[in-house]
Specification:
The complex is a heterodimer. Chain A has a six-stranded mixed β-sheet, with helices on both faces. A four-stranded antiparallel β-sheet of chain A has the order 2-1-4-5. A four-stranded antiparallel β-sheet of chain A has the order 12-13-11-14, with helices on one face. Chain A contains eleven helices and 14 strands. Chain A is α/β, with parallel strands linked by helices. Classes of the chains: A alpha/beta, B mainly alpha. At the A-B interface, helix 1, helix 2 and helix 3 of A face helix 1, helix 5 and helix 12 of B.
Chain lengths: 317, 259
């Protein structure tokens, strides 16, 4: 649905994102995880067509953002970090305005506004002035705005920032409900958020993508599990069962197998170096140890940053 | 077109929800009322004296009272608008930038030109409401006389075109800052500076004089005020308006690049 290729954005003095590439599949929820200032907002603004990239391309449903901006924007609902609300308007009045500039036909206008208000549960405040609403309601009106005209792609920049835990839960549930029928890209700097809502996560730091994986795998890595890659000349089935029996090993997965050699991915217990044990097992069994490599990425630093950010958030609420 | 209308509608509602519309309208009505009253008394005074003179000396010097009043009144109006229009235009983009709603406008499926035109016509609509308010004192002329409509039409046409240019200047300036006040002051200063070109031209030598005179926003109003519609004056105001719209459009583009 979305394909981002070699995206780079330079401002006058600094590089916001550098050579960022990824794809988002249809109906998927993709999370953008990274500390503040990592380039999440810049990336999302480029996808939403707010800002052109310095280099690279973004395609949404086959349309290039720079070449066919209107075709792309028609397919995207975008919630910026600060919800773009006109505080002096009523909820319904505001949504009608958004529907008009998004080109919703006149005879569908009321139905569409009502549909969206029901979707995000703001019908009870539809005649209230937005400026007088609570932060949670404002955020929901912000989401409602993105849902107008039912775009297949939703770009949500920090959709839960500044909300209380109950409101956060509501917004997360809403996003999960939207997945499937919508492709969702959301950004956050809170680790549990991606675990709870996203199918896939991109970790970005200082403008570069550091990791792309499922939250489960990522969590594994972030928590410092030891992952080792091995290439062994020996019978795969036997090798795997023997390695699994090695103390400290949690899981062994086969990556590939070619004529008597197999590549394996082994996850070990936290903060325990299992490499020498693994090597001994292989050699003692009489197989050939072709390669042994520690695969845990240097995510500890990012993890530290992320967890501190989460703690600050908790302390603040 | 619907996009543009939607922006105009929203903007006009916002004017009338905030105090700004009422403050500007009240100030405008009050000041134009005082000005009209002053001019009316002066002209009536003059007419009285000249009719006395003609009775004594047997010489008649008839003057077209309503035309003079309208000319003087709208001439002063152009000074008032110099203050009022920047107040109307100052928030157009500055507020959108400050509140972040600019992201909604610039990611909606409409072109930048549509956004710029929507904003322009919003302020123009409010300016036309102001002008309509000026008919309140003007109606006195019609109640107690039957003024020739030609000169009055010419006066108003001049003011309308002049207003377009001022709105354009204010619109462009409001893309440059997030601060309404700065935007308002800047718009006023630029318009005033273009007004002063006329004063500078008086002491300048050719060819500077001709250039200064041409660039003055006020010198082109003179003919309209005399009741003469000259194409070159129309072209001046329209090209100034289009130039400012183009600058606004470019400024929005640059805003996108800078983020």
């Amino acid at each position: 649905m979305i394909s981002v290729e070699n995206l780079t954005k330079r401002y006058a003095a600094k590089i916001a994102i550098e050579d960022v590439s990824f794809k988002v599949n249809n109906g998927e929820i993709l999370g953008f995880l990274g500390p503040n200032g990592a380039g999440k907002t810049t990336t999302m603004r480029i996808i939403a067509g707010y800002m052109p990239a310095s280099e690279g391309s973004v395609r949404v449903d086959g349309y290039e953002v720079f070449d066919n901006p209107l075709d792309v924007r028609r397919r995207i609902g975008y919630l910026p970090e600060n919800p773009p609300l006109y505080l002096e308007m009523t909820v319904a009045g505001y949504l009608r305005f958004v529907a008009k500039i998004k080109g919703v036909a006149k005879d569908r206008l009321n139905d569409e506004v009502n549909r969206v208000m029901q979707r995000v549960n703001v019908v009870d405040v539809k005649d209230r002035i937005i400026g007088k609403l609570s932060k949670g309601y404002k955020q929901r009106v912000g989401v409602a705005q993105a849902l107008i005209n039912d775009p297949p792609v939703l770009i949500l920049d920090e959709p839960t920032i500044g909300l209380d835990p109950k409101q956060i839960h509501e917004i997360r549930e809403l996003i999960k409900e939207l997945a499937g029928s919508h492709t969702v890209v959301l950004s956050t700097h809170i680790l549990p958020e991606v675990e709870q809502t996203c199918h896939r996560v991109i970790i970005i730091d200082r403008g570069k993508i550091i990791a792309v994986d499922t939250p489960q795998n990522l969590r594994f890595q972030l928590q410092g599990a030891e992952r080792v890659l091995m290439e062994i000349a020996g019978p795969a089935v036997e090798v795997i069962s023997k390695l699994k029996a090695t103390p400290g090993v949690l899981d062994v997965q086969k990556v590939s197998e070619t004529d008597g050699r197999c590549k394996l991915q082994i996850d070990g217990e936290l903060r325990k170096d299992i490499r020498s044990d693994l090597a001994r097992t292989v050699v003692q069994s009489g197989w050939g140890l072709l390669e042994l490599q520690s695969a845990s990425m240097s995510l500890e630093d990012i993890f530290l940053k992320l967890t501190t950010a989460e703690e600050v958030e908790k302390a603040g609420t | 077109m619907r996009n543009i209308l939607a922006i105009v509608e929203r903007e006009l509602r916002a004017y009338f929800i905030s105090p700004i519309a009422y403050v500007v309208l009240t100030a405008f009505l009050l000041l134009s009322g005082i000005v009209f009253q002053g001019i009316l008394t002066q002209v009536m005074d003059y007419q009285m004296r000249s009719s006395l003179q003609s009775a004594q000396l047997g010489r008649a010097t008839p003057i077209d009272g309503p035309a003079i009043i309208s000319q003087q009144f709208l001439g002063t109006m152009s000074v008032l608008l110099l203050f009022m229009i920047p107040m109307v235009t100052m928030g157009l983009f500055a507020e959108e930038k400050r509140r972040g709603t600019i992201e909604l406008l610039l990611t909606a499926p409409m072109t930048d030109l549509q956004v710029v035109l929507g904003k322009f016509f919003s302020a123009v609509a409010f300016f036309l409401i102001l002008l309509m308010a000026s008919w309140l004192p003007m109606s006195v002329l019609y109640l107690y006389g039957s003024p020739a409509s030609g000169p009055i039409f010419s006066n108003y046409l001049g003011i309308v075109l002049y207003g377009f240019a001022l709105v354009g200047i204010g619109l462009f300036v409001s893309t440059l800052t997030e601060n309404q006040i700065i935007s308002g002051i800047l718009g006023f200063v630029i318009a005033l500076a273009m007004w002063f070109f006329d004063l500078l031209a008086a002491r300048a030598e050719q060819p500077t004089k001709a250039i200064m005179e041409y660039l003055s926003v006020i010198s082109h109003l003179q003919d309209f005020m005399k009741g003469v519609i000259v194409t070159s004056n129309i072209i001046f105001y329209l090209s100034l308006t289009i130039l400012t719209l183009f600058l606004t459009y470019r400024s929005i583009d640059s805003l996108r690049w800078r983020g």
